[in-house]
Amino acid sequence: MDRISPAAAALGIIHPLQYKIIAMINAIARTYLELNLKLMDYIIEPNLDVREILSNQRPDSAASDFAEMNQPRRPISAFSRLTSITCLEAPDMAQRLCAACSRFAKDFAEAEEKVSFPRAQTLAPNIHALRKSAQNDCQLCQIVYQSYFYNSFVSWSEETFPIHLQKWPYRPHRDDGLPHPGQDPIKPEALWIGVGKTIKETEGLVKACSSRTSSSIADLSSDEGVEKAVALAKEWLATCCTNHTNCCMSPGNQHLAETLPTRVIDVGSKDEALAPKLFIPTHPLQDIKYVALSYAWGSDQDFAKTTASNLDDMTRCLPWDKLAKTIQDAIIFTRKLSIRYLWVDALCILQSEGPDDAQHRADWSYEAARFGQYYQNATLTIAATGAISSSDGLFLRRPALEFDPEPVILKQNTNGGETDVFIIKPPTPSWGLAIQNAALLTRGWAIQERVLSKRILHFGASCLLWECHESRVTETNPGDTDSLAYSQTGEDFLSAFKDMDNRQEDDIMRSWYQFIAVYSSTNFSFHTDKLPALSGIAARVKDRFPQDYIAGIWELAVPEGLAWMVRETEEPDPGSDLPSWCWATRRSVSFFFVWDNNDWNPMIQVKSWSVTTNGPQTSGQILQARLIISGIFKGIDLSDPSLIFKFGSKTNAEWTNNVTSLTALDPGFSVDRLVFIDDARSIKTIGNHHPCLLIGKSYPPLNSTEKRLVGVALILEPTGRVGLFQEYRRIGLASLSFMEYWDDVQDMRTVELV
């Protein structure tokens, strides 16, 4: 899986392959414009740095390479791309542009084909000034303002960032109208709309987009808009339940299929004036239809929850005014869908009343192992995808609806003395981008909820989105799956999981670790939830491919599961019972072997393991875990100054002067001299004969065609305890030249890892 580009995506202007053929009479040009305006659309490939600046919560790509992992962050936020069509002459249409946009249009017109650098213009000092200009009826500012919301997840904390517009030069074709050899035939001239502190260090990436028409977006701040959303949701749900075979299939394991909630909210019906209440069935529910809510609690958690003390009161009537706004909206919407029951964790699980609340601990332990099945068996999952807190609600304000801009015409003079005319069309939200930048999906629990749900109605920041096994559509294009909806980072596992009955074991194992590399960067209120929040997914994988689940690692892929490296060195959670070799001890990891699908060769034998859990093995509630493995063992001089130590955002200067540390590695660095340290404190113990155990060898991909065989080894530290075998804990991972460090080593040892 490729890493998301660290450059912002271009907002491109499509130029036809044979632009000379476009010469036509003016009467035909007007008709051509009207027809093609219906066929154009936009595309964006967002930038990791963009998302880190805007939300500071986005996970890195699962398959990022060393070079990109260490690229310096650029102070850019987001860029968008619009499409256009080209005609001989512009239609007779009055332009309403502000002074800044007029200057840009003039500069755009004077740009020559041979210019090798972008022309740039700052349209507004911040989003507020841009909005004011849009309110003054500048058409281009209105389009840029909409793009600001549709093409990135925007936080108002960046309200002081300037808004930029810039043009990249057109790549001319040959005299016969065809592209030059090796040139992308659909590579257009590019127009960038950006939000950030600088536009000097950007890279463009433009891709083709599919044509589609769009419908209007509901204003959820109005009753009329909510009713429109209800009607659309009912249509999507009926279509899925009637026509989508894959969405109606139950899990092969009958126990998983029959796992239904212990408690649900009775939302009442449209015909009854009954207050919602908690419902606890006296016997197992059969064939019940219910909705599950996926949402983020947020930092403000002063809302009503169910506890052991108020359980009886909640079964009589929920305290409406004290419920979180998102829960209120979910109850309203569920009732409007004519579905009687709703499952919400805050109300359907006993919440803590203090550190000594044994009833909460017992109830949470029982329910946490069943969370996944609750979402899997729900008729529908409602997701507060665009909200960062439960106080935001489902019915979010949509600022982009303030304007309904008309297309903008930009002219460009060519070197041949002709004038090309570009029609810039207002953007519409894309499914892929709305999900990729979603606030909710930075929350770890929400990842499992999305993976396991059969059907999801996403209340996005800009529009409604539908997701099921067979369809991914938006409110703006409700009947046609977005062609880019499956191209995001982390989507491989989602697709493989939903098609698991037709997948091979190796495929699922590899996809699992690729998925974990994305999942590990998500956020948790409690660090110890990282494995429990995977319990439902793990249970499904274990059911399909029976094997032991060893603290986040699969029995049939232990070497691969040990070959992780930290993206950012940090101190482990002191209260964690997880073993040092478990990836879940760290906030953000990558897996070495996923770089190359063919060249990874494991080099250890797994002798035995032991895992003690509170609940099923897949519950993730680890009490104790140990591994006994056998492999090539060597003491390595890690004080060698030629080695490159990786500490994420930290350097090692404060700990030692004996090793080299780079905060930004040159793309040409050596992948066979890298050392990743898990815990910054461990640098003090590194010496010239440090114990390392080889777990595999590989040819990691380089920027060139060159291949270097590297040995991937665990860096160990003795605990001082010796039983049947010497006991060690993991403190890092090394990628070193196999021929130089491991080729002639004969020392095979069996060690116990804790």
UniProtKB/TrEMBL annotation:
<feature type="domain" description="Heterokaryon incompatibility">
    <location>
        <begin position="290"/>
        <end position="449"/>
    </location>
</feature>
<dbReference type="Pfam" id="PF06985">
    <property type="entry name" value="HET"/>
</dbReference>
<protein>
    <recommendedName>
        <fullName>Heterokaryon incompatibility domain-containing protein</fullName>
    </recommendedName>
</protein>
<dbReference type="InterPro" id="IPR010730">
    <property type="entry name" value="HET"/>
</dbReference>
